Amino acid sequence: MISNIPDIKVPIIKNGTSNILSLRDEFKNKRLILFGVPGAFTPTCSEKHLPGYIKLYDSFKKKYIDEIYCLAVNDHYVMKSWLISYSENHYIKGIADGNAEISKYYNLITDKSKNFMGYRSTRFGMFIENNQIKSLQWHSYEVQNLENNKDVTLIASSEVTKYQIFKYQNHAYGIQFHIEIKDTTVHEWGCVPEYKKALEDQLGDGALEKFDQSAKDNMSDMNNYSKILYNNFKKLL
C-alpha cells in the first residue's frame, strides 16, 4: 500500500465552493480523516456513511483531527450538490475524484458496471498525518487483485468474501465480519431490490421475510459470537 499523498489536482469542495487544488498541498501539515464512498446520492452513502461523519465530527475534533474529507468518483457539480443537500450545518469537505485518479493511485477502485455505475471508489477510511497515511480501513468485499501484491499474505478466505483476513507486511490486517448490531438490518437490506431478488432467486419466495425473522430471533447469539470472534482476532495482532 502506498503511504504518501500524491500531487494530483482535483476539485475540492469547501463550504459550497469548488476549487481545483493539489491533494498534497491541501493535506500538508494536517491531521485528517479521508473517507471514500461509491457515489454521491446513492442510498447507503447518503443515509449512513456521510451522516455518520457529520454526527461524529465534534468527536473527531476532540481527537485533534483538523479536517474530514469525503471522496467519491463524481464530478464536482454532483459532489457539491450532495454536500449542501444536508440540512445540518456541517464541515465535511468534498473531493470530486471524477477521473478516479486518486482511487486508482491507491488501488481503491471497484467495478460497479453491473449496477450501471462504471468504476467507483471502494468504501474506505484513512487517517492521514503530515501527508502520510497512518492507517487505512476498507471494505474487503470490494478489494481486488491482492494476489499480485507481494507484501500481502492471505490468511482466510470464503466464497462470499475472498479476502476475509489478510496481512500487509508485518503490521496491518484487513478483516470483513458483517457484524449485525440492529434488528432492522435485514429489513434495510431488503429495501435494495437487487438484494431481495438475489435472495429469493436462491432461497425461494418469502426468503427475505424468513431471513429477517431468523436474524431477529438469533440477534443476541450472533452478537455474542461476533464479539468472541473479534476478540480472538485481536490476539493475532
Description:
- The protein is of the alpha+beta class.
- It folds into 2 domains: 9-138, Glutaredoxin (3-Layer(aba) Sandwich); 185-234, no CATH class.
- The protein is 34% helix and 25% strand.
- It contains 9 helices and 12 strands.
- The chain has helices at 23-27, 43-55, 57-62, 76-84, 101-105, 185-189, 193-203, 207-217, 219-234, and strands at 9-14, 17-22, 31-36, 67-72, 93-96, 109-111, 119-121, 124-129, 132-138, 152-156, 165-168, 172-175.
- The protein has a 7-stranded mixed beta sheet with strand order 2-1-5-4-3-8-9. Strands 10-11-12 form a 3-stranded antiparallel beta sheet, with no helix packed on it.
- It starts with 8 loop residues before the first strand and ends with a helix.
Descriptive tags:
Glutaredoxin, 2 domains, seven-stranded mixed beta sheet, single chain, 9 helices, 237 residues, alpha+beta, three-stranded antiparallel beta sheet
Write the layout of secondary structure elements.
Blueprint: E1 9-14, E2 17-22, H1 23-27, E3 31-36, H2 43-55, H3 57-62, E4 67-72, H4 76-84, E5 93-96, H5 101-105, E6 109-111, E7 119-121, E8 124-129, E9 132-138, E10 152-156, E11 165-168, E12 172-175, H6 185-189, H7 193-203, H8 207-217, H9 219-234
Parallel strand pairs: 3-4, 4-5
Antiparallel strand pairs: 1-2, 1-5, 3-8, 6-7, 8-9, 10-11, 11-12
